[in-house]
Amino acid sequence: MNNTKLNHTRVPAAISAALLTCALAVALVPSAGAQSVSSMRSEIERAKAKIDAKEGKAKVLTSRIGALSGRIRGIEGGINKLRGQEAGVQARLDGAVAELRAIQADQRKAESRLAKLKARLSHSRKVLAKRLLELYQSDRPDLITVVLKTDGFAQLIESREFLSRIGDQDRAIITTVKSDRDETATLAKRLAKIEARRQKVAASIKADRDRIASVRNGLESRQQAWKDARSARRSALASIRDQQQDLHDRVDSLETDVARVTGQLQSSAPLPAGPVRAGSGQFIWPINGTLTSPFCESRSWESCHPGIDIAAPTGTPIRAAGSGTVQLAGWTGGYGNFTCIGHGGGVSSCYGHQSAIQVSVGQGVSKGQVIGLVGSTGFSTGPHLHFEVRVNGSITNPMNWL
For the whole model, what pTM was predicted? Predict the structure, then answer.
């Protein structure tokens, strides 16, 4: 009897404990989900901060690449200018080479002529010496006296007295000797001038070539160094772009996870739509919330925000601003879950970052009908509704319609 009572007492207690455990588990699911969403949003914020930092580095690199490209173009202009100068130097060089060849040909002729003159002069001197010996041996004291009064052979052939005392044949020999001697001296001076001119032209050619080669080598070296620097910066920029894309992909994945978890949380505890908020325009406000971003606000990733942002808790029902037909309903890049409704006359209203879409393309909706739930999908920093009004596809200020 006592055992039976004890067993009856224990069964309800066990059932109560099991029910309590289940209740706690059910109660903890939203809490765990909320913590997961909070963690994912924190990671999203960190990823977006990294994206902004990467964007800053990308802008700096792009600016530096532009500056390097400008310098390279300047150097290429300098190299082209040098090539033009080089063409001028080459023309002068061709002229100088032609002149040098002519000088060398003239020099060879003069050297050949000089060699012949020297040979002839040597022969003439031998003939004259022999003739003087014969005159001496012929015992002509007057002529011997003249020879002895001179200081040397060169003075002897210049002596008028000597020339007047010798015969026509001897005089012809002496005249030849004098002529060959004078021409030899003149030709030697000319050859010296030719050699000096040849050396000057050759030195000028070498100096021009060396100067252009030195300047061009320096410019080409700098050009290559800057090209290498630009290539390295382009590689760094490409790496940063890849990292940005990875971060964007990670953000999109996290936003999807947030939407999924948020949707699961909302299914267990939906929020009320609240009263309709009408303004002075033809549209009603899609949600009751706080305006956090005005139309065309400037941001780091865009110069003009194309709509307005209205903050509200995740899961807040979104109403259609006006009656119309659903033109777009699905995931759209940075907008996340995105819905657009056509109202006729080219006017459409659009709703971004939804945690859940509750209409489909082609569906007719009436003003005030719930079409989705507030969320933070896409490129978003927290739960809010991004609201746009477009006319013929162009953005316009939604406040003019609310």
Answer: 0.38
